[in-house]
Amino acid sequence: MEEGVSFSALVARALRRELTEPVVSAEPPPFRLVTVGGEGTYPGIDLDRTSDLLVAEDRDRYGDEG
């Protein structure tokens, strides 16, 4: 630690040094979209009405009890 330098000056100098250094970033890993095969959406489901999709998923999971 340097003598005669206030703590706030030391912090300011460290921040300035850190923020002015160029950022070296590695190439991001390749992105792979994983999809699920199948027959598509549930019959009669309009994907513009997400509430219908939620109801259909609940019926599929819990049964049609009401």
List descriptors:
single chain, 66 residues, mainly alpha, 2 helices, elongated
Helix content: 40-55%
Structural class: mainly alpha
Number of helices: 2
- SSE arrangement, N to C: HH
Radius of gyration: 28 Å
Number of strands: 0
Basic shape: elongated
Q: Low-confidence runs (pLDDT<50, min 5 residues)?
A: none
Average pLDDT reading? 83
Please state roughly what percent of the residues sit in beta strands, choosing from under 5%, 5-15%, 15-25%, 25-35%, 35-45% or over 45%: under 5%
Largest sheet report: none
Termini separation? 72 Å
How is this structure best described in words?
- With 66 residues, the chain is mainly alpha-helical.
- The protein has two helices and no strands.
Which helices and strands occur, and which strands form pairs?
Layout: H1 7-20, H2 50-62
